[in-house]
């Protein structure tokens, strides 16, 4: 279920009242990968958008990996979905 401009919703209480999911993809770590957090719970370390889609699927939200980068309810911290590893200097 989704709400207009609110992102997907999941039930967070016994009565079935739902609210928007808060998905945060943290900045790339110094060793590569980005932590993915949903409603305060760390789901794992993603190395690409397919990993983010898989973590969300396991959390009960089906999303096509092609839609992850453009989903307005995913908060990409510091950089967007194009960066996953540590920066190297040339």
Note the topology.
Blueprint: E1 2-3, E2 7-11, E3 18-20, E4 23-25, E5 34-38, E6 41-46, H1 49-58, H2 65-68, E7 74-76
Parallel strand pairs: 4-7
Antiparallel strand pairs: 1-2, 2-3, 4-5, 5-6
Structure write-up:
With 90 residues, this protein is an alpha+beta fold. Helix content is 16%, strand content 30%. The chain contains 2 helices and 7 strands. A 4-stranded mixed beta sheet has the order 6-5-4-7, with helices on one face. Strands 1-2-3 form a 3-stranded antiparallel beta sheet, with no helix packed on it. The longest helix is centred in the middle third of the chain and has 10 residues, at 49-58. Residues 1-7 and 9-18 have low confidence and may be disordered.
Q: Short summary of the structure?
A:
By secondary structure, the protein is of the alpha+beta class. Helices cover 16% and strands 30% of the residues. Strands 6-5-4-7 form a four-stranded mixed sheet, with helices on one face.
């Amino acid at each position: 279920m989704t709400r207009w401009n609110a992102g997907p919703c999941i039930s967070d209480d016994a009565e079935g009242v739902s609210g928007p999911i808060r998905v945060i993809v943290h900045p790339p770590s110094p060793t590569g990968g980005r932590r993915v957090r949903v409603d305060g719970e760390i789901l794992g370390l993603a190395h690409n958008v397919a990993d983010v889609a898989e973590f969300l699927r396991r959390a009960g939200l089906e999303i096509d990996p092609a839609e992850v980068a453009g989903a307005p309810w995913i908060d990409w911290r510091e950089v967007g979905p194009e960066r996953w590893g540590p920066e190297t200097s040339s």
